[in-house]
Amino acid sequence: MRRLLTILAVGLGLGLALGAPVAHAAQTPAPEAGSVVEIGRDAQVDGAVERVIVVGGDVRLGPDADVSGDVIVLFGDLRRDPGARVGGSEYVLSRSVIDWIPGPGWVAGLVLLAALLAYRAAAWAAVCAIAATLPRTASFERWASGWEPRPVRALGLGVLAVALALPALGLLAISGLGLPLALIGLAALLVSAGAGLTLFREGPLWPRRPGRWAYAAYLILPPALEIGLLLTAAGGLGAGIRALTRSASARR
Fold it and tell me: Which own/partner contact pairs does 221-224 have at CB distance under 8 Å and 24+ positions apart?
């Protein structure tokens, strides 16, 4: 999931700026080819390759296609012959996502880039608002009790919990029926991130009062905001788990 988000963020402006209609298909050379990377063109694979990454084009895997890694198609379609083999995962973001945007491809690129920045600003604002609100609640003192004695242990426990929770939420979302549970889980992680931000105070990767350029970096650079969210969520989740286990032990 994170690999797809990273590649999407990096290739967003470039892939869309090259225009909506795809030109001629690129024929992949036979057996000893490396990775297939195409922007604004179709790709047809009929041999053994390491991985396939296409932005703004369609991918066709022929009967002799043998992809040892992942197949990533952004703003295009994937047509796979039954005999084609893919050793990794398949990530496909259909072109229909941007078909509703009128005008040339660069307009669609600007619209989606603005939407991406709006999402990042909203995520930042939501976590900061939660971090400012939680300390005023009575339950936050119990939450913080799981952090203060051994914060490193709480952070390690939180990292493990986040590593287990994200794939589980992804599977729930893919199943369709579990989508409401996945949304509730994401909301819980967002609250945990707000709690973690408060517990970290100045935070290792998410300062409480960032400067202008640090703020811009968190909103524009894909790894920055995601790493900050994951670390603060891990801190808050780990502290919450430790607080619950300590409370349960005290009742015994």
Answer: 222/5, 222/6, 222/9, 222/10, 223/6
Angle between helices 222-251 and 212-220 (to 10 degrees): 90
Q: Which alpha helices (H) appear in 88-150, and where do they start and end?
A: 96-99, 105-133, 139-145
Residue listed under structure tokens 């490193």: 152
User: Rounded CA gap, 169 and 151, in Å?
Assistant: 26
Residue listed under structure tokens 């619950």 = 244
Nearest-10 Cα torsion for 66, 69, 73, 74: -170
> In sequence order, which residues have a C-beta less than 8 Å from that of residue 213 and are 6 or more positions away?
none
Torsion of CA 49, 10, 91, 87, to 10 degrees: 30
pTM: 0.57
Write out pLDDT tens, residues 6-62. Answer: 344 444 433 333 333 333 344 444 444 578 888 778 889 988 998 898 877 889 999
Residue 115 corresponds to which amino acid? Answer: A
Task: Give the number of other CB atoms < 10 A from CB of residue 50.
Answer: 14
C-alpha closest to that of 208 among 221, 196, 219, 220: 196
Angle, helices 105-133/2-17, rounded to nearest 10 degrees: 140
- Taking the C-alpha atoms of residue 199 and residue 242, their distance in angstroms, rounded to an integer, is 14
